[in-house]
Amino acid sequence: MCPKWLTEDGFEMQLGVNHLGHFLLTNLLLDKLKSSAPSRVVNVSSIAHKGGRVHFDDIFFEHSEYSPLESYRQSKLAVLLFSRELAHRLQGEKRLQPAPALSKRGVTSSACWLE
User: Fold this and answer.
1) By CB atoms within 10 Å of each CB, which of 14, 53, 67, 74 scores lowest?
2) Phi, psi at 18, each rounded to 5°
3) What is the model's pLDDT at position 48?
4) What domain range includes position 85?
5) Domains in the chain, number
6) Active-site residue among 12, 15, 52, 72?
7) Residue 26: its pLDDT value, please?
8) What angle is formed at CA 83 by the lines to CA 41 and CA 100, rounded to 5 degrees?
């Protein structure tokens, strides 16, 4: 089972790695991406997002039992929601046009997120 880890900044690790870091980097680079078009932002999510929900009242599992699978699902749903909102906010931008893509990949080599 994957233990609950925290980032150096105190965020739950899966949300920090799978979503928050990409969110921050994208926002820091957005003006540069717009000015150097054609540009592309690629966010990778997972079908696991379908079983997830964002726990806005306890996003880092500080007051509830930690579940590696629920944490993973939440992080991948956050990626998807961010990507959709980014696409919405950039709608009409001629220089940056986000688009979804689907890819069938293999199963992860570690099943710890299933436990």
Assistant:
1) 53
2) -80, -25
3) 81
4) 13-22+31-93+109-114
5) 1
6) 72
7) 95
8) 70
pLDDT string in tens for the chain (115-residue length): 478 999 999 999 999 999 999 999 999 999 998 888 778 888 887 888 888 889 999 999 999 999 999 999 999 999 999 988 988 888 776 655 556 666 666 555 555 545 5
Q: How many residues does the chain have?
A: 115
DSSP codes of every residue in the chain: -PPP-B-TTS-BHHHIIIIIHHHHHHHHHHHHHHHT-S--------GGGGG----TTSTT-SSS---HHHHHHHHHHHHHHHHHHHHHHTTT-SS----------PPPS--GGG-
What contacts 89, CB < 8 A, 6 or more positions away? Answer: none
Taking CA 67 as the corner, what is the angle to CA 24 and CA 16, rounded to the nearest 5 degrees?
Answer: 10
